[in-house]
């Protein structure tokens, strides 16, 4: 079942500011249920059961505690709907908007018990997604005119959620998994007995299976780039992109030397898409983006994410007072 078929959780797919990437088997509703179940255990929220009357209704507000790009608003609505379809959620911002520290950007109203039960799961997703989106936005702006991509270095079980956050932040998605793109990497090349043998094997496989999909090969030296270019100039191939791996060389002064990467891009001369990988940071991405490379991939977008600080408060006046005291609002 596709992800679009499993997102019927009270949120209009059409109304989303940024739609999630497609996946043939990802069960978003199942992920939400699992997150709620691991929190509730076999007893539910014992603190809520002890302190909050089941029929009490409240209003709570989402509060940004630092500047950043907000993401996960559509997912938050799905979670609230899963807990209690009668909960009402209103937003002054949408996924991908910039929020400033101290901004109240959303309101949720309904049964107090159910709002508090959903609170932590909602915030866990929103804070992670907003952290990814915030870093992606900064990297994407710096990388221009190259496009910034994430990788498969995502949290297990949260592949689609993490990649959705990258889209919200203005990045582009790399392959979703092992199934939607051929990526010939160093281990494949070693096992196949060389880079050309690996490309030949892929071409034969795709032809035998009557498959059409993007094909990328990883190169680590200018000699490998030349080898690939010579082969593909003489033989029809399914290759669409060449990865230029670790061709950004760190220097002792903290800068990077991109001359090797630039030489590789000039050798390819637009015959294939190009992707720079390795030594990509906030400090280096702008220089890499000026080499003419098509894409820059960064695993750090998702594997080293710093969550954006967001809270959901019923007594917002007290929350702001405490926030000012601790310099967080």
Automatic annotation (TrEMBL):
Function: Involved in the catabolism of quinolinic acid (QA).
Family according to the record: Belongs to the NadC/ModD family.
Biological or metabolic pathway of the protein: Cofactor biosynthesis; NAD(+) biosynthesis; nicotinate D-ribonucleotide from quinolinate: step 1/1
Top-level EC class: transferase
Protein name: Nicotinate-nucleotide pyrophosphorylase [carboxylating]
Organism phylogeny: Eukaryota, Viridiplantae, Streptophyta, Embryophyta, Tracheophyta
Residue intervals of the Quinolinate phosphoribosyl transferase C-terminal domain: 132-313
Superkingdom: Eukaryota
Source organism (scientific name): Salix udensis
């Amino acid at each position: 079942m596709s992800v679009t078929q499993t997102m019927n959780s009270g949120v209009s797919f059409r109304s989303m500011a940024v739609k999630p990437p497609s996946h043939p088997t990802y069960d978003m509703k199942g992920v939400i249920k699992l997150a709620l179940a691991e929190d509730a255990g076999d007893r539910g929220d014992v603190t809520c059961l002890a302190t909050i009357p089941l029929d009490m209704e409240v209003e709570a507000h989402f509060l940004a505690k630092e500047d950043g790009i907000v993401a996960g608003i559509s997912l938050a609505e799905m979670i609230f709907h899963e807990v209690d379809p009668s909960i009402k959620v209103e937003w002054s911002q949408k996924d991908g908007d910039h929020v400033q520290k101290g901004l109240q950007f959303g309101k949720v109203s309904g049964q107090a018990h159910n709002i508090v039960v959903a609170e932590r799961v909602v915030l866990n997703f929103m804070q992670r997604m907003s952290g990814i989106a915030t870093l992606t936005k900064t990297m994407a702006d710096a990388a221009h005119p190259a496009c910034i991509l994430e990788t498969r270095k995502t949290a297990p079980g949260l592949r689609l959620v993490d990649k959705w956050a990258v889209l919200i932040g203005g990045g582009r998605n790399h392959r979703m998994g092992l199934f939607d793109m051929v990526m010939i990497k160093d281990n494949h090349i070693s096992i196949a007995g060389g880079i050309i043998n690996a490309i030949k094997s892929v071409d034969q496989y795709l032809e035998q299976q009557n498959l059409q999909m993007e094909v990328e090969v990883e190169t680590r030296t200018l000699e490998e780039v030349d080898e690939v270019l010579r082969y593909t100039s003489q033989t029809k191939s399914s290759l669409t992109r060449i990865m230029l791996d670790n061709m950004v060389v760190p220097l002792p002064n903290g800068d990077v030397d991109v001359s090797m990467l630039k030489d590789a891009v000039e050798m390819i001369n637009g015959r294939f898409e190009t992707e720079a990988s390795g030594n990509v940071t906030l400090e280096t991405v702008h220089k890499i983006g000026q080499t003419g490379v098509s894409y820059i991939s960064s695993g750090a977008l998702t594997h080293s994410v710093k969550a954006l600080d967001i809270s959901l408060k019923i007594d917002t006046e007290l929350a702001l007072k405490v926030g000012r005291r601790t310099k967080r609002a």
